[in-house]
Amino acid sequence: MQKKQLERKSLDTVLKALDINDVRIEESENPDFLLKCSGKNIGVEITHLYHNKHHSEVKSRAWEGECERVLNEAKIKWIERNQPKVNVSVTFNKDARFRRKEAKDWGKNLSYIISGIVPAPGKQSVVGKYAPISHALKGVSIPEEYDSIIIDRSPEGMETSWTQSTGGALPKLEASFVQETLDKKNLRVSSYREKAEEIWLVICIEDFKYSASFDVNENATDHRYKSLFDKLYLISRRNSTLYELEQAFNSETVT
112 with 81: CB under 8 angstroms? Predict the structure, then answer.
């Protein structure tokens, strides 16, 4: 997905969570979007959080890209074969490697594996080591490159979805990491205000990917941040959970 498309999906998630419908949206740069809403001009800057070197034992984005290629090829083959609409979530073995030239073969193989365990409409199939006993399919094994596979039969009208599951423990989202991201954006607020009277910053957790998934906790959501923005939001796109973060403006003391 292109950067601007990703930003727009994040913005749409925020507007839906805030129940804002009557709005005119214009794509921009610095900030990313200009909104005309309730007689106000609002600039919205979108930024996404990703694991960095301080988050130990996390999977690399390069490895994640290898897995995404396999999933994309599996989805293509699934659609070519006119298979039923499904939501597929795959947890890859962290030691598995998928060379680019082998992605099509791995994807084809994965699509056939899933063909053999597709549940009835409205049901779910789970295989692998993370499968709960109540949902696991007995006697079904999968290649060691996959830790688990979850398949949901999609309701009518839904699109086929193939995603990576995070699997395992997630790094905690620390207030210091959020503030570090915010500090970089604070430097640009004056230029943003040249385009709009009110400026929002949306910090997005794009938790459809492991490298962008965090354990969101009170350390991050209840902290008081040093900010120059008029509104500061943190949003998890997977479940559309929106937090308006508390701010200490300008000369106020931040603890």
Answer: no
Q: CA 113, CA 149: separation in Å to the nearest integer?
A: 10
Question: ω into residue 31 within 30 of 0, thus cis?
Answer: yes
Query: Can you tell me the distance from the alpha carbon of 192 to that of 182, in angstroms, rounded to the nearest whole number?
Result: 14
CATH label, 3-54+171-249, candidates 1.25.10, 3.30.565, 1.10.45, 3.40.1350: 3.40.1350
pLDDT tier, 251 (very low <50, low <70, confident <90, very high otherwise): very low
- Beta bridge partners of residue 204, listed in sequence order: 48, 235
Say what the pTM is.
0.63
List CB contacts of 171: < 8 A, sequence separation 6 or more.
Answer: 51, 55, 56, 58, 214, 215
Q: Where are the domains of the chain?
A: 3-54+171-249, 61-164
